[in-house]
Amino acid sequence: MGLYGMMRTGVSGMAAQSNRLSTVADNIANSSTNGYKRAKAEFSSLVLPSSGGSYNSGGVTTSIRYEISKSGPLQYTTSGTDLAIEGNGFFVVQGTNGQPFLTRAGSFVPNADGELVNAAGYKLMGYSYANGVPAVTANGYAGLETVTIAQSELVATPSRNGTLTANLPSSSDVVAAADLPSANAATAQYTHKTSLVAYDNLGGKQLLDVYMTKTGADTWEVTVYDRADAAPDTSFPYANPPLATTTLTFDPTNGKLAGGSPTDISLTVPGGDTLTIDMSDMTQLDTDFSVTGKVDGSAPYAIDSVEISEDGTIFAQYADGSRRALYRIPLATVQSPDQLKVITGNVFSESADSGGVQLGFSGSGGLGKVTPGAVERSNVDIATELTDMIEAQRNYTANSKSFQTGSELMELLVNLKR
Predict the structure, then answer these.
(1) What is the largest CA-CA distance in the chain?
(2) Is the peptide bond before 134 cis (omega within 30 degrees of 0)?
(3) What per-residue string of b and e applies to 402-415 under the rule 16 or more CB within 10 Å gives b?
(4) What is residue 52's predicted lDDT score, i.e. its pLDDT?
(5) CA-CA distance, 248 to 264, in Å (whole number)?
(6) 334-372 confidence digits (pLDDT tens)
(7) How do strand 161-167 and strand 274-278 relate by DSSP bridges?
(8) Angle at alpha carbon of residue 198, lines to 220 and 208, rounded to 5°
(9) What pLDDT does residue 8 have?
(10) Which residues pair with 223 in a beta bridge?
(11) Is 91 within 8 Å of 83 (Cβ atoms)?
């Protein structure tokens, strides 16, 4: 086995250095690829059994490892949909066949369908807010959807919450029960009135008339009507009963609502959702009437821009300045990231050696933090790769010399019989 083994060992050395050069070439080619993870050839010896004074040369084998757990430097951009991870974790993306993968390549842009895709065409996955605040599925991909932002879509938000804060003068006169606004008589009287704009399910404006009327010592009736039901050129009687009515009771010692008094009023907006108006800050003090109010909801607006927070929540920013949570992006991790299976397009899939995928949200459970407006560059260092290239080239040449020497000696041995 001597000379033949020597030649075989030289071939194994050249093959090993060839693999090393291949990884170096890949690394250099992808040095500017976002999310790329450096490949390297790991060497291990191959020993053949020897006996007596005979030595059987073995060789060298290689295994390819990827430095997946090593982060690349962050580069900040001007795109709000570019994402990077500062720390541990991966984004969950989906291929064309619907299979989920993991990636650190976070340069996402909307495609023709409004789906956020990266340079390799993989679609970003997230949990939708359509059914309420999302919760993570810790050990699987169930519940994830493709993040889709249709900027041409008009969205109307119905009113659901509001506030009404007023000072009701303690010196106001009491209105008789028969003439209270809640009775909806033509002779109705009230102490003070204001109006609030609310939005129905289609984004239409609904004007609500709010009457505040003193009914007795430290008691006030609050009644809400639909302005559309008011009598022409006047108010009472309205065509329909009040949308809601309640009685507030004040503490005479401090002018604030008494402990047993209602603190809000709920009603159904015409054509809309249930609106709850908070009145917990109402007062009855010996000063002039003053009132402020606010109701949420919005008319139909298109998405003006997309904003992503550090906790991974994707917000739609509308033309009126309002915003709405659409998705929350989870981060994934495995027990051994460097053992993940590498797939074309800077994506990874779990393997038997990597462990199962665990999902969580940004900044929780040892996961890193989502950094919007940035991308993670390749973790390749060009200087290191060029040094490795020179070293591999020299080692390849040295191994070729071993093969060449063995070949020459073999030829000499064959020619001995001539």
Answers:
(1) 136
(2) no
(3) bbeebeeeeeeeee
(4) 67
(5) 9
(6) 999 999 999 999 999 999 999 999 999 998 888 999 999
(7) parallel
(8) 40
(9) 82
(10) 211, 245
(11) yes
The residue among 120, 88, 78 whose CA lies nearest residue 101 is 120
Count Cβ atoms below 10 Å from residue 13 Cβ, excluding itself: 20
Token pair in block for residue 272: 């809309």
How far apart are alpha carbons 251 and 192 in whole angstroms? 20
Give the HSE-up count for residue 42: Cα atoms under 13 Å, Cβ half-sphere: 7
21-71 tens-digit pLDDT: 999 999 999 999 999 999 999 988 878 777 667 777 778 888 899 999 999
192-199 and 205-216 strand pairing:
antiparallel
**Which residue, chain included where needed, has tokens 């009437």?**
289
Q: Which runs of E-coded beta strand occur in 159-263?
A: 161-167, 192-199, 205-216, 219-226, 244-249
Contact 79, 109 (CB under 8 A): yes
Return the closest-CA partner of residue 221 out of 185, 179, 267, 268: 179
**pTM, to two decimals:** 0.67
184: its two tokens: 């909806």
Distance in angstroms (rounded) separating the CA atoms of residues 70 and 180: 73
**What are the backbone angles phi and psi of residue 243, rounded to the nearest 5°?**
-70, -30
- Residue 247 · residue 177 · CB < 8 Å: no
CA atoms within 13 Å, Cβ hemisphere of 38: 22
| The pair of three-digit structure tokens given for residue 9, joined into one six-digit string | 């060992």
Tokens of 185: 């008589």
Which of 205, 204, 188, 187 minimizes the C-alpha distance to 196? 205
